[in-house]
Amino acid sequence: MWNWPRQAVKRHNLTKMWFMKIIDEREKNLDDRAYRNIQELEKYAENTQTALLYLTLETLGVRDVHADHAASHIGKAQGIVTCLRATPYHCTRQKVFLPMDICILHGVSQEDFIRGKQEKNVRDVIYDIASQAHIHLEHARSFSKKVPVKAYPAFFCTVALDDYLCNVRKVDFNIFHPSLQRKSTLLPLHLYIRSWKKTY
C-alpha cells in the first residue's frame, strides 16, 4: 500500500520533495495546538495545500513559474479557508486552531469560540482571517494572464473557496451560522462556468 507515492513519482515524473513536505508538515501538526500567528498557518498551508497543487500541476504536465506563484497563493488561501470551515467542528471538541495573534488583537479567547459566542470582536477575528484568504486569491488571479490555460484545472478549487468566503461575508462573519454548514447546490454550476470561461 505504501508503494503508491513511489509509483506515482516514477510514472508521472513528480517531485518527491513535495510529497515529503506534506508528510513532514502533517507530522509536525500532530500536537493539535493553535497557530501562533497567521504566518504559521500560511506556512502550514504552503507545505500541505500548495505542495499538493504543485504535484497536481506536474501531473497536468505544467512546469511554469507563473503557475507556481498562483499555486502558492491559492494553497495558502485554501489552508486558511479550511481552518475557518473546520472551526465549528473543532470547537465541539474543545479545540481551537485559529491564529492566536489575531484572537489576542481583538481580545478573544479560545473559550469564546468553544462557547460559540457571536459578539463583534469574535466576528472581527473571522473577518481578519477571511480577508487574508481573499487577498491570496486576488494575488493568484493577478497572474492569470501569464498562467498556461493547461494549469487551470488545478486551480478550480478556488470556486469552493470563493463560495465559502462569499457566504461567510453574507452572515457578517458569524462562523457558527447554520447556513455555512450546508452544501452549496450551485457549486457544480459555478465550476462549469469557470471551466467554460477558462478562469480561476
Care to describe what's here?
This protein is mainly alpha-helical. The chain is built from 9 helices and no strands. It has helices at residues 4-12, 16-28, 38-59, 65-92, 100-105, 110-114, 120-141, 158-170, 187-197. The mean pLDDT is 93.
Overall radius of gyration: 18 Å
Strand content: under 5%
The biggest beta sheet, please?
none
Mean pLDDT: 93
- What is the total tally of β strands? 0
Helix content: 55-70%
Low-confidence stretches: none
Shape estimate: globular
Distance between the termini: 34 Å
Order of helices and strands: HHHHHHHHH
Structure classification: mainly alpha
Number of continuous helical runs: 9
Describe the structure concisely for a colleague:
It is built from 9 helices and no strands.
Write the layout of secondary structure elements.
Elements: H1 4-12, H2 16-28, H3 38-59, H4 65-92, H5 100-105, H6 110-114, H7 120-141, H8 158-170, H9 187-197
Helix pairs in contact: 2-3, 3-4, 4-7, 4-8, 7-8
